[in-house]
Specification:
Bound molecules: adenosine-5'-triphosphate
Family: Belongs to the ABC transporter superfamily.
Keywords: Amino-acid transport, ATP-binding, Nucleotide-binding, Transport
Order of helices and strands: EEEHEEHEHHHHEHHEHEEH
Distance between the termini: 30 Å
Organism: Streptomyces griseoruber
Number of domains: 1
Strand content: 25-35%
Largest sheet: 6 strands, mixed
Radius of gyration: 17 Å
Oligomer: single chain
GO molecular function: ATP binding; ATP hydrolysis activity; branched-chain amino acid transmembrane transporter activity
Pfam families: ABC_tran
């Protein structure tokens, strides 16, 4: 399968602080990659760098063979790179439907529209006329994903979307993933729950203190290997 994303020798961080060291990562078209690692390991920083919200100190980000390192997040969104960050960041005074329409305005053309999002995420459909400020955390998270889908992501980056949500809501979010992939999205997600990670991922990459210390297919890795990499005891 062809490579959609190529992260090559990336160092990144904030001001003088370096959070990522020599990250190399290839993700194939259609793949679902899970990033795991302890708090502060650098997972969010890596997603932000891939999305273009953070410019790397060195190294390159390639998308479908094109070097996009110099392109800011808005330009990458037009090419289908979409980050759903930790914490939901909806427009609180807009309704659910209006928030979804914002996603369509910033993304690219493709199969996703309001009807399809509502079909894939019944939780979102039920709340379509409600103001975002009046939604529960789980509902907001679902809308944030729906909004990303409206931009027809080619590469969807999900940062701990299940954090703090009730298991039932998380189940609903995960139930939508196969449909999202069927529409052609490649997915990188950060997930703390190893059971969910192994259930959903094709491949797993473990981040420890700013470095990728282990990668492998979900079928080829054991939980013990991933746990050891997570704690740096491998
Ligand atoms: P978490 O699950 O806690 O979000 P993470 O693996 O996503 O963990 P990052 O958020 O990428 O980790 O953080 C990596 C390192 O960068 C940490 O040491 C963190 O304190 C630091 N960091 C993150 N955001 C900023 C920022 N805006 N300014 C300065 N340092 C930051």
């Amino acid at each position: 399968m062809s490579t959609l994303l190529r992260v090559d020798s990336v160092d990144a961080g904030y001001g003088d602080f370096q959070a990522l060291f020599g990250i190399d990562l290839d993700v194939a078209e259609g793949e679902l990659l899970a990033l795991v690692g302890a708090n502060g390991a650098g997972k969010s920083t890596l997603l932000k760098t891939i999305a273009g919200a953070l410019k790397p100190f060195r190294g390159t980000i390639g998308l479908a063979g094109e070097d996009v390192t110099a392109e800011p997040d808005i330009r990458r969104a037009r090419k289908g790179v979409c980050l759903v960050p930790e914490g939901r960041r909806l427009f609180p005074s807009l309704t659910v439907e209006e928030n979804l329409q914002v996603g369509a305005a910033t993304g690219r053309k493709g199969p996703w529209n309001l009807a399809k999002v509502y079909e894939a995420m019944p939780l979102v459909a039920d709340r379509r006329t409600r103001k975002a400020a009046r939604l529960s955390g789980g509902e907001q998270q679902a809308v944030a994903i729906g909004r990303a889908l409206m931009g027809n992501p080619r590469l969807l980056l999900l940062d701990e979307v299940s954090l703090g949500l009730a298991p039932l809501v998380v189940d609903q979010l995960y139930t939508a993933l196969p449909g999202i992939r069927a529409e052609g999205a490649t997915v990188i997600l950060v997930e703390q729950d190893l059971n969910r990670t192994f259930a959903v991922a094709d491949r797993i990459a473990c981040v420890l203190e700013g470095r990728i210390v282990l990668t492998g297919t979900a079928a080829g890795l054991t939980r013990d290997q991933v746990t050891a990499a997570y704690f740096g005891t491998g």
